[in-house]
Automatic annotation (TrEMBL):
PROSITE patterns: DHAK (PS51481). It holds the Pfam family Dak1. One of its GO terms (biological process) is glycerol metabolic process. SUPFAM superfamilies: DAK1/DegV-like. Residues 1-33 form the DhaK domain. This is DhaK domain-containing protein. GO terms for molecular function: glycerone kinase activity.
């Protein structure tokens, strides 16, 4: 679903479990993002 010409915003919430937290905390090394 896109909203290119629509006004407003979208918020997505999800439960953060241990597996997702590990993924978010993992090191990243890409052209656009280095962590």
């Amino acid at each position: 679903m896109t909203s290119i010409e629509m006004q407003g915003c979208s918020i997505t919430l999800l439960e953060l479990d241990d597996e997702l937290k590990k993924g978010l905390d993992a090191k990243a090394n890409t052209i656009a993002f280095r962590c």
